[in-house]
Amino acid sequence: MEPARPIPLLIACALGIERLALRGDHDGAPGPVTVVRTGMGPRSAERAVARALGDGAAARDTAVIATGFCAGLAPGMHPGDLVVADETRDPEGRTPCTASETLAAALSALAPAGVRRTPHIGPVVGSDHVVRGAERARLRATGALAVDMESAATLRAAVSAGARPVAAVRVVVDAPEHELVRIGTLCGGISAFRVLRTLLPAFFEWHRSLPLPRR
Predict the structure, then answer these.
(1) Which end of the chain, C or N, has fewer beta carbons within 10 A?
(2) What is the pTM assigned to this prediction?
(3) pLDDT tens per residue, range 111-122
(4) DSSP state, 175?
């Protein structure tokens, strides 16, 4: 009997700059990897993920990671901080994430020598617009750690196409003390880009930890 092969991995991001950061060597991946740029917003994310997964057994087995930049909601967050979702939320519901602790541990292990990188783990909420000020505080009061426009829609579309492992990892580009409208935005964006471009090995480690599909 032919041994089971690792399931494919689909990595979804919204922006061209995020896709650029995720351009890298896939030799360390345990199975096939596809990086898809969905475009901005929940509707674009849903359509792109549904199209990428399509039909067939391979698509039904594919694991999905939503990634890219986000707005941090918790006081004390800084540009470049990592947020690992244990679930994503939006007005249409909640999607539990798979092996969040495993993924967070793999991300922590990527930190350069002498640098402590401990990802924040908690809910990531979806929005259809950029969130600022009082609205950010209201979302924080629900227990959410970060907000972006695509993660919740991406994972919802993924599990709607069939049960599969899903995850979301976001890099904080602005935070309560570093909002996008402020002069520090450029530095925050550079920090977030530099972090995002290092994350593929951790995604592959999470991918490797997933159970082999039953045939």
Answers:
(1) N
(2) 0.90
(3) 765 556 789 999
(4) B
